[in-house]
Amino acid sequence: MKIRLGFVSNSSSQSFVIYGVLVKKEELRNLLGVEVNGEDDKYEAFDRIWSAFNKKTGGKYLTLKDTKDYFSGDETDDCVIGHKWGEMNDGCIEQIDDMSEYEKQKTLDDLKALGLNVDKISIFAGYISNDNY
Question: How many domains, in total, are found in the chain?
Fold first, then answer.
């Protein structure tokens, strides 16, 4: 075993900008036929949803993000599904252009093909940074 003395840094971050919809996890579980047993913890339950989502979509074009509170670890009942449109960098201001009408319609069509009844998409953005020193 190694013991490190002195300055230790562990930093991770992720960001996203998604054009899509906010969906209840229960609705998504039903839509994808995901069964969650009472023994699953919150991470296992979302992993089952994630796996079924990627299997159904082939891991292409649509993306799925959990809306949990990353700092408190509190789980929410929602997730975001849509087309990833950009990323944000720490300490930077990013310009993110609007989607074309074709891209907006493609997003709606892909969400409907997944089985969601939607007629409007929104912009969702998140930046999560975890700096541990």
Answer: 1
